[in-house]
Amino acid sequence: MDILSAIKHFISRTTKPSEVLPSYSAIKFRVVVIDFLDNIESNGGENLARLLSSKEGINVGFFDDIFPKNFLNLESRSLFDLIDKGQSIIEQTKADVVIWGYRENNRIRLNFQTERQYEHQEDSYISLLDSFYFPASFFEHPSQFPPAILDLIYGAVISSLVPANAPARIQKKYLLKKIIDKLSKDDSAKVVSVEYMPYIMNFLGIIYLSYAHDHQEERDFKITKSLFETAIKHQDLIDSPLHLGCIYYHLGQLYDNATRQMEHRPAAYFKGAIEYYHQAQRYLGKYTYPYDYGYISYKLSQLYFNYWRQKEDIQALRDAVFHLREAEKIYTYALFPNFWATIQGELGQKLALLGNLTKSNEINELAITSYRNQQRVITERRDPINWALIQENIGEINYRLGRQNDDREALEDALECFHDALYIFENAQNENKIKEIMTDIARTNQILNSL
Question: Which SS3 state, helix, strand or coil, does residue 188 take?
Fold first, then answer.
């Protein structure tokens, strides 16, 4: 297979890396390769770490502590053990990305894990389930490792990164640009047989989507779409439905991103994103791969909500709430407190809107419950400003309930919430919010005095 033929048709139309992006050479991302799970005596993981250490912008380490790695079979019942162990290693090594390696017959499967991978993140498209397969012989004989394959792995590593700040984002984009440019000129992947085509096309799509995600144009969309579609066309070479589900997931991400970045045919992008996300959930099921299923549900909720904002279709708002509830079942307070709080806040917002449109007391009460849940994590002591904003939201719902039902108790609850928020904003000397809250208090008192 010739990687050059897969991407040379578009890279020639892009500018050279030095023309558009400066290098933040001082920024080094920390990458740790974990000793492979192999049934033969092998130095595959150590060899990969040594090869990657020559690449720009990364510091590479090798983690060879001995521990059971049976969870690397990617079976659903052991997935949490994999996530948990990976997070432990990330904390121990301060890694931005860890690379897992697992032998399946004569192939090595690579998977990439980052900190809080299954939480609210918008800068990385890679799932822990995304699997990159290569002949095991490559890792056993590093002197014969095809440069293009190493660059593909390097591109997957950079695509996995979740940058901590703006310079890191720029550095990530710069490195991806250079990788794409280099791959377009290298035909050393011809030595890889066609059985690896869907996995390589999937990761090429991820690399290009990661590069173009914040400036996507029609050309970028078509290129990335063609890479994922090429992977799907070779699905007869994929030995697990899990891997097919990941490709559909990325097509959903591509269309989802287009709903925000592209100006033309927005309705078509919404439809495509929803269809591909649902298709992905057929393979990444609630009871088999719950974290991917749950995150797709979270993204579906955002899509339906944005569609409602455009079309004012109340069913889309109901669908947004439904999919958030699906995500809520999986990302629990006990295991994912911060992401759970994000979901609770978004549930509060969407339920409040739905309650206002339907004049439903029950839905408004559910919105209040969600906001109160959010305050279990966003407390007055830890995050007073955001806590006060939530109090303001709860006060607004209580005000609305009191006004439409002539309910004095609800109005008094609203006043209490507004005064709580006012105290925080006064301490913060936020004049704009003080004026808003004072107006809320005045109108609430006016209705109370008229009852």
Answer: helix
